[in-house]
Amino acid sequence: MFWKRITLFRLLGFAVRIDASWIVIALLVTWSLAAGLFPEQYPDLPPITYWTMGVLGAFGLFFSIIFHEFAHSLVARKYDIPISGITLFIFGGVAEMEKEPKTPRAEFLMAIAGPIASLFLGIVFWIIGTLLEGAGVSMPVYGVLKYLGLINAILAVFNMIPAFPLDGGRVFRSILWHKSGDIQKATKKASRYGSGFGTAFMIAGAFFLITGNIISGIWWILIGVFLKNASFASYQQVLLKSSLENQLISRFMITEPISVPSTITVRELVEDYFYKHHHKLFPVVDGEILQGVIELKDVKQVAPDKWDTVPVANIMQKLSHENTVPETMDAMGALARLQKLKRSRVLVISTGGQLLGILTLKDMLDYFTMKAELERS
Fold first, then answer.
1. pLDDT-based confidence at 234, cuts 50/70/90?
2. Does the structure show a pLDDT above 50 at 2?
3. What pLDDT was estimated at residue 4?
4. What is the distance, to the nearest Å, from the Cα of residue 193 to the centroid of all Cα atoms in its chain?
5. Please, are residues 325 and 346 in contact by the beta-carbon 8 Å criterion?
6. Catalytic residue check, 322
7. Contacts for 197-203: CB closer than 8 Å, 24+ residues apart
């Protein structure tokens, strides 16, 4: 979903990040306000005033989306749902949940918190803007505040569309989940609604394009495509969790991995292991003692003219949280760690530190793909 992300600040324990794609929407909002909405509503003002209002309106929207996502995040924290951060991207913002809610009640309250926060903020902005207008304050000031009041109300209403994974879709799923007791079935139905709304938005976008409203048409189509893809991905995530949760790592790991002695040279490592077996990670084992891990990136730190003299022991990584998982971890927990660390494989070690095997992302995803295919038939 995200391009390159930059952490802006941390507040109340949550990291607030901005995706590079947010720049697109920020520029578009500023331009549409400065060149379209504000000149139409408040004519005969200097161009610099419209652009100032546009920038302030864009920053106000930025604040509003963060406020919306913080509402989700604070309720999620209350119900022990880990939130890794808040990211703003081209279609708005998202509070990044590391796990699904444990109960329908937690899902409902977390989902509804965002639209309620947006509606509250919209009312506050609108009241302040109206009061300032009545008091004779400068038009640009109350104009921006009333715009923020309106856009927050729109944000609240739009997010309550019952299209998963929008907030309204999550509220809808929580109700289905409460009635059926089955989160997988509830997610499947809510995702179908999300996909249906996505298709409807795409059709509306095509209509706008045909009638000459190019910008609106493009945005409706993009939102529709995003919603369809997000609905599918969210359902797949629930299926993945149900497939891997409580499964032992031993079911997926390679139990007799190829290991490397620490005494061989980098040249021997490259020729006899990397080129021969095509793996990017090997355990380093002397006798029966696990010494560490060697990866392709470690070799790249050594100049080729020194490959014949530098031993693996000099460049291998020590065992750590980043390259190992304990045998007691379930498969879903291991998958989450691999994804978080952006790794394709890790060592599986016993409580005593012995090498038991290697766990690969490919093997777990192949299992999930096959299971989903069989159950779909």
1. confident
2. no
3. 64
4. 21
5. yes
6. no
7. 197/161, 197/162, 197/163, 197/224, 197/227, 198/163, 198/223, 198/224, 198/225, 198/226, 198/227, 198/228, 198/229, 198/231, 199/224, 199/228, 200/224, 201/227, 202/228
Q: Which of 69, 133, 295, 375 is catalytic?
A: 69
Query: 201 and 77 in one domain?
Result: yes
Backbone Cα Rg of the chain: 26
Residues 232/195, Cβ–Cβ less than 8 Å = yes
How far is Cα 52 from Cα 225, in angstroms, rounded to an integer? 33
* pLDDT at res. 344: 84
Task: State pLDDT tens for residues 254-297.
Answer: 888 889 999 999 999 999 999 999 888 899 999 888 999 999 88
Whole-model pTM: value is 0.71
Q: How do strand 355-360 and strand 14-19 relate by DSSP bridges?
A: unpaired
| 235 and 259 assigned to the same domain | no
Contact 295, 307 (CB under 8 A): no
User: Distances from the Cα of 198 to the Cαs of 163, 202, 227, 314, in angstroms?
Assistant: 8, 6, 5, 54
**Full DSSP string of 81-101:** --EEEEEEETTEEEEEESS--
Domain with residue 309: its CATH number is 3.10.580.10
Residue that the structure tokens 């779909």 belong to? 376
- Residue 81, number of CB atoms within 10 A of its CB: 20
Q: Which amino acid is located at 113 in the chain? A: A
Q: Are residues 34 and 171 in the same domain?
A: yes
